[in-house]
Structure formats: C-alpha cells, structure tokens
Amino acid sequence: MSVRPDSKISNSTFLLTGFPGLEQHYPWLSIPFSCIYVMVLSGNCLVLHVIRTEPSLHEPMFYFLAMLALTDLCMGLSTAHTVLGILWGLSQEIGLDACIAQTFFVHGLSCMESGVLLAMAFDRFTAICNPLRYTSVLTNTRIINIGVVILGRSFLFITAPIVRLKFFHYCRHHVLSHSFCLHQDLLRLACSDIRFNSLYALALVICTLLLDSVLIFISYTLILRSVLTIASQEERLKSLKTCVSHTCAVLVFYIPIIGLTMVHRFGKHLSPMVHVLMGNIYILFPPLMNPIIYSIKTQQIRNRIQRWFIKKT
C-alpha cells in the first residue's frame, strides 16, 4: 500500500503511515499485531474480571489496578481500528474529525494512566509508611474521588487544544507519522498559528506527566527510607516485594513515552520506520505488559487465575 500524491487527498483527510518499505509483508505483519491486540483486550478483561469476582481483592490496591486495566483496555480499543486497518489493507485514510477524536482519547488515556500510576504510588506509600491508617485514609469514597479527579484532569484539560485542531488549516502534505493520530503530528502539518497549542501542550506535559513522575519518585524515596528503618531483613524484602509490580508498570509506561518524545524532538533525520516503531511501542507496550506483570507478580491475582483455569479444565 503506497502513499498517494497530495493532490488526491482532500483537506479533511489524512494518510496514516504503516511500516514504510514493508507494504508487501502487511498480511504477515498483521498476524503478530492481531495477536498483540487480542492479548491486550483479553489480558485486561481478565484482570478486571478477577478483581470483580474475587471478594478478597476488593481492596484499594486492586481498585487502582482495575482503573489501570480499564485505561489500558480503552487505549487498545482506541487504536486497534487504524493500526489493524492498515495492516489488513482496509484503509489508510482517516478523516479530520475521526483523527481529532482519536487524538483526544490517546492523549487523555495516557494522562489518565499516569494519574493512576501516581495514585498507586500513594497507595503503596500509605500501606508501607503508615499501615495503621491505611484503611482510614483510602476509604471507598476517597478512592472514588481520586478516580473522578484523575478522569477530569485527564480529559477536561486537553479539550481546549484538541478542539482547536478542528479549525486549523492543513496546507502541508497530509501524511501522518504513525498508524494513529497524535496532537504533535497534526501540529506539524498545520499552517495556522499553533503557538497556543504548542505552549499549552508543553505546560500540560509538565503539570501532568512530569509532575506525576516526580511525585512517584518522591514517594518511592520515602518508601525506601521507611523500609530501611525496619530491623528485620525478611520484613524489608516483604515490604519491597509489594512495590515490584507497580515499579515495573511505571517503567513500562514512562520509558516508551520518553523514547517517543526523544524521537519526535531529536530524530527528524532518523528513518520513518523508527518513528512508526516507537509509536507502536508507546501505544501497545504498556497495555500488553501490565496484565502480564500483575498476573505474575501479584500472588492474589495469580492464585485466582490458576484456580479459575483449573476449574475450567
């Protein structure tokens, strides 16, 4: 599937980029990508099902995990139709309205995942540093309020720059850098005044993703300081083991974002394949790995899944 000349593309239509140079291999590439999306959807649905049906998992830690799984599930659903549509040869085009909607969900869900990871860090901080007040601090009402705040922060604050995309004039070539739409990618094609969007997006990244990562780092610094005061080495290891899954989830989320940001900022000379690869890692790696991490590292979920499959067999 080749990119068509700009003259054949309307002002409200964009071309998504698949894997440049590998168009003849799309039928084969669609197999692993389809499997990945099936794993993303089934893995996160399984985690949600286990948490919903197992009364012993009705605790703050697992409520936050359910939020994370739901966010990852939505991220997979928001990009599957464009990524797989290209590989299956269905369509490489996307309309402006659909592109803006996908941009809204991709960026909103990324911000939401960052907020959930911060809430999970607060959960681990409270459980380890102040265990006697854990249940009184993280009540069901407070967890619901935290979830509402994360949801509101994630989607309300990005509405203004996303809506402005609708009124931009796109006079440059209408070929996007990825198999899905991103705010910075659409700005690159706009000929209108994009200063508000650029500055707002930068401020939003600083106030959400960067601030969340700093607060997560501070929480783990305090956790380590608290753990080191424990006399028993066995108790130290037991406390730290409760943080392993969350630490892996934080790394799985932030490393691809940093990599994609570096590629967009400093990798203009790199092959388009690098941009496409980093974009797909950013979209698919966290939703794919989080259910695996928590199914392996969290004993309660692992035991429940094992019992469930044993009953099925």
Describe the structure.
With 313 residues, the chain is an all-alpha fold. The chain contains eleven helices and two strands, in the order βααβααααααααα. Strands 1-2 form a two-stranded antiparallel sheet. Helix 1 (26-53) runs antiparallel to helix 2 (60-87) and helix 8 (195-228) runs antiparallel to helix 9 (233-266). The termini are far apart.
pLDDT averaged residue by residue: 89
**Total number of helical segments?**
11
Strand order of the largest sheet: 1-2
- So what's the overall shape? globular
End-to-end distance: 44 Å
Q: Assess the beta-strand content as a share of residues.
A: under 5%
* SSE succession: EHHEHHHHHHHHH
Helix content: over 70%
Q: How many whole angstroms does the radius of gyration measure?
A: 21 Å
Largest sheet: 2 strands, antiparallel
**DSSP strand tally:** 2
Structural class estimated from helices and strands: mainly alpha
Low-confidence stretches are 1-10
Membrane topology: Multi-pass membrane protein
InterPro entries: GPCR_Rhodpsn, GPCR_Rhodpsn_7TM, Olfact_rcpt, OR51/52/56-like
Keywords: Cell membrane, G-protein coupled receptor, Membrane, Olfaction, Receptor, Sensory transduction, Transducer, Transmembrane, Transmembrane helix
Subcellular location: Cell membrane; Membrane
Topology (SSEs and partners):
Blueprint lengths: L12 E3 L10 H28 L6 H28 L5 E3 H34 L4 H4 L2 H17 L2 H6 L18 H7 L5 H34 L4 H34 L5 H26 L1 H14 L1
Antiparallel strand pairs: 1-2
In short:
The protein is built from 11 helices and 2 strands; from the N terminus they run βααβααααααααα.
